[in-house]
Amino acid sequence: MSFQTTQTGPADLNAFVGDYFADRSLPSDGLIVQSWYRSVVEHGLEPAGLVNKVILSAAEIHHHQEFHHDYMSIAGQGVSGLARRVGQAGFAVLLSDERGIALDSRVPATGSVYADSGLIVGSRWDEALVGTNGIGTGLASGRALIIHRDEHFLRENDRLSCSVSPIFDSLGNVRGCLNASCLNSNGPKAAQYLTLQLVIMYARMIENAYFRHSHRNTLTLMIKPCGELSDLANEQLLALDEEGRVIGANRSAFVEHQTHGQGILLGRKLSDLLGVDVDELLRLCNGGANVARLRAGQQRLVEVGLHMPVKIRPSRSSEPAAASLIHRAPTLQQLSGDDARLQQSVARLYRVLDKDLPILINGETGTGKEAFARAIHLASRRRSGPFVALNCAAIPESLIESELFGYRSGSFTGASKKGMKGKLEIANGGTLFLDEIGDMPAHLQTRLLRVLAEREISPLGADTPLPLDIQVISATHQNVAQMIVDKTFREDLFYRLNGMTLQLPALRERSDIQGVIETVLREQPGAENCRIDATSMGLLTRYGWPGNIRQLINVLRYAVAMADNNWIDSDCLPVELLDQPAYGPGPPLSRPHLVDGGDEGLRLLETLRRHQWNITAVADEHAVARSTLYRMMKKYAIVPPNRGI
């Protein structure tokens, strides 16, 4: 049967089912029909078509299992627990990754029958390959569901009845699926409902265990409604950064937050959710020893418990501040601020996290490339592994090879007797950040390309290569495309490093520059109570910042040191901000003007024009301090032509 799909749209699913699949017992709407529509229209499949089962080779299975080692280790207990409860009833239990590849399975004693149906490790259940099925449709929809017998798209799968629940990570992304399938179930679909509830329960348990593993070095909260029987599978879990912002949550927390229409959960402050900050919650919970009762959204009374990292659990005699208990590295949300372009880039980043894609960060010097690389590492599943940074421009060419690849004892004259691990080996299981990748020597580009292609390294003097499992993030301020044209950078290496490009705007280009200035100011020592007056803020926001964030930090530290009574005025700013014209785009330039200045104001305006608005030169001519000159300009309402009103 051939399908004409060009005139059928998802708005007319009832007609779609009636026209094409009248012989199937399909519901007229819902997730299953939507999946059938995708199978036909988007994936070009036919229900009666012959589709060879896609089973990975032994080597490919080993690679996938190694890559998902932590996930499988944590989920394994849940898979076994579910199998013990449903295996005697004839169910096979499968655990998949986010691509629908079966990583683990538990089948009844008559395992060959299930293998014939594809219920084995290495089988692929992506909806694009086999159409509507439990794992594939669970991943595509992000919903728990039952696909019963002829609800499967392919005729060859209509013996199966599958109950499936997706498994989510702490960022709300689908991590995989838990599936229980039986063969030749002659009962109604409703008879599988209890199995589905068991699958959902074990999926939530796996999620919570994976959450606790991912955030074992982070301050986490456990939240449940008061007066209800404890249901650990549905307990809300939140992970917080040093400012009390949510950096991770389990599925129950995401669902609860969405149910009450509170917008995006990640990045929200604890004080917005529960009305208390981290320090207050630590006090109420006695450092994690007690449970506190709080109101969520002024309505629901909830019990809140704390889990604190063992390494930094406070003693009874001390009350450390929350900032000393939690990792201080900024998150992706904090780094993106309120700049719309950066927020969009970060949203794309989250979609490719843990997808084995290398990331290339472009940006001017000082825009925070390493800070973004660290934030990417902390947002990934590799956060518990090492983050290793290597600046390719800061190491002499003669040393960079040993720094990157390492060597073994006695491999050359003068080598350390103990040998030395290279950055690649140290980063195994974590993230390697290659800063200023454009400065890497040509012969090392070739070696790095081979390492990335083969996923193994051979330190100098080593007998056997070492398998490599790393996330590679590289960064440069150079125009790599032009370097490729100039034959100074390998084109094939560029494509190995450029799975996704993150373009960081210069500070002067950020739409939230004032917010960035205020945030950076709060981070400087002694600046807790400092404020910036309007004139100085105008100077700061209009300046070109050739050194970007790095230069801003130095300027604000200088301003804090110069401030009187915690008040930063223009006299506290370095001379380059006062004397140099504004850089780059900005609001329309205003004409200088004078209000009721009299002769003194006119003379001052003329002097400013004569010196082309060089504040230092005018102050010297009048023999006054620059701060006095600024006060005179304010008195007579003199506005420089490059500042605006």
UniProtKB/TrEMBL annotation:
Q: Which residues form a coiled coil?
A: none
One family from Pfam that matches here is AAA_lid_14
Q: Does the keyword Transcription apply?
A: yes
Keyword DNA-binding appears in the UniProt entry: yes
- Domain called Sigma-54 factor interaction: residue spans: 335-561
Keywords annotated in UniProt? ATP-binding, DNA-binding, Nucleotide-binding, Transcription, Transcription regulation
Q: Which InterPro entries match?
A: AAA+_ATPase, AAA_lid_NorR, GAF-like_dom_sf, Homeodomain-like_sf, HTH_Fis, P-loop_NTPase, Sigma_54_int, Sigma_54_int_dom_ATP-bd_1
Q: Which PROSITE patterns match?
A: SIGMA54_INTERACT_1, SIGMA54_INTERACT_2, SIGMA54_INTERACT_3, SIGMA54_INTERACT_4
Q: Quote the protein name from its UniProt record.
A: Sigma-54-dependent Fis family transcriptional regulator
